[in-house]
């Protein structure tokens, strides 16, 4: 599969390659394929209701946004946060906001202060990892593409939203920075939160953040959310859920 992807990338170029990969992925998910490989994506069906308001942080090419848009329906709202212009273009192609006006793309990175930051698309073991695009802060990371993007403070960005039921956040180890600057929004609405947490320090910080805000840490097991301790969370490799108490 690695060599097939490399071949497709070489003949299609990055934009057309990502368009192909994302459209095939979304089509397969809509047909119910990969439930075992991506259980969190399919679990949205049980935790999202019509009329809900959701935030998709790190929306990438629209994998979560497309499903959230369908689940909340036209009376709901989805705010998709994706700073990379190339990804945003493909997100628009996949999500089709002209047909789904209840879904909004916000082209920003999230952090403490407004301003310009650089994000990088990494390569590891000769393979492009577009889903691991992150704030380019590590000198040891190899990036094949760099992007200058605008950063916004999430509490400022979402200061005027009237409701919030669910947050999905996947920003490749930058989650602690996002949540630290989103504490007023989280305290105001107390949404259910799903997040991938890369890096031990980042993970520990985010878990402590939510415990201090009276949330329970849980993971998805056998299609149910199971509470776990911080010690157990530190050795697991999967998405985490933070449930308001």
Query: What is the makeup of the main sheet?
Result: 8 strands, mixed
Secondary structure tally, helices: 9
- Under CATH at level 1, the class stands as Alpha Beta
Residue runs with pLDDT of under 50 for 5 or more positions: none
Distance between the termini: 43 Å
Rg from alpha-carbon coordinates: 17 Å
Question: How do the helices and strands follow one another from N- to C-terminus?
Answer: HHEHEHEEEEEEHEHHEHEEHE
Mean pLDDT: 90
- Helical percentage: 25-40%
β content, as a range?
25-35%
CATH evolutionary superfamily: Vaccinia Virus protein VP39
Q: Tell the overall outline.
A: globular
Structural class: alpha/beta
Strand elements, count: 13
Indicate the CATH topology. Rossmann fold
The total tally of domains equals 1
Task: List the strand order in the largest sheet.
Answer: 3-2-1-9-10-13-11-12
Commentary on this structure:
The protein is built from nine helices and 13 strands. Strands 3-2-1-9-10-13-11-12 form an eight-stranded mixed sheet, sandwiched between helices. Strands 4, 5, 6, 7 and 8 form a five-stranded mixed sheet that branches. The model has no long low-confidence stretch (mean pLDDT 90). α1 (2-30) packs across α4 (85-95). The chain has 245 residues and is α/β, with parallel strands linked by helices. The chain has helices at residues 2-30, 39-47, 63-72, 85-95, 154-157, 175-180, 183-189, 200-212, 230-233, and strands at residues 53-57, 77-81, 103-106, 109-110, 115-124, 127-128, 134-135, 143-152, 166-169, 192-195, 215-221, 224-227, 240-244. Helices cover 38% and strands 26% of the residues.
């Amino acid at each position: 599969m690695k060599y097939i992807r490399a071949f497709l990338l070489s003949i299609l170029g990055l934009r057309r390659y990502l368009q192909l990969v994302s459209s095939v992925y979304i089509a397969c998910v809509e047909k119910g394929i990969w439930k075992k490989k991506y259980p969190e994506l399919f679990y949205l069906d049980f935790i999202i209701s019509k009329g809900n308001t959701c935030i998709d942080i790190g929306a990438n090419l629209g994998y979560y946004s497309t499903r959230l848009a369908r689940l909340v329906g036209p009376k709901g709202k989805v705010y998709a946060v994706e700073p990379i212009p190339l990804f945003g273009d493909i997100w628009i192609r996949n999500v089709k906001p002209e047909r789904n006006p209840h879904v909004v793309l916000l082209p920003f990175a999230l952090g403490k202060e407004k301003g310009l930051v650089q994000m990088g698309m990494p390569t590891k073991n000769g393979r492009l990892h577009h889903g691991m695009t992150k704030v380019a802060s590590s000198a040891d990371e190899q990036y094949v593409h760099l992007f200058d993007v605008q950063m916004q403070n999430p509490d400022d960005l979402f200061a005027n939203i009237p409701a919030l039921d669910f947050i999905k956040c996947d920003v490749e180890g930058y989650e602690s920075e996002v949540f630290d600057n989103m504490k007023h929004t989280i305290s105001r609405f107390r949404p259910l939160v799903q997040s991938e947490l890369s890096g031990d320090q980042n993970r520990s910080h985010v878990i402590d953040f939510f415990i201090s805000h009276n949330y329970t840490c849980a993971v998805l097991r056998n299609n149910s959310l199971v509470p776990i301790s911080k010690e157990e969370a530190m050795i697991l490799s999967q998405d985490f859920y933070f449930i308001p108490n």
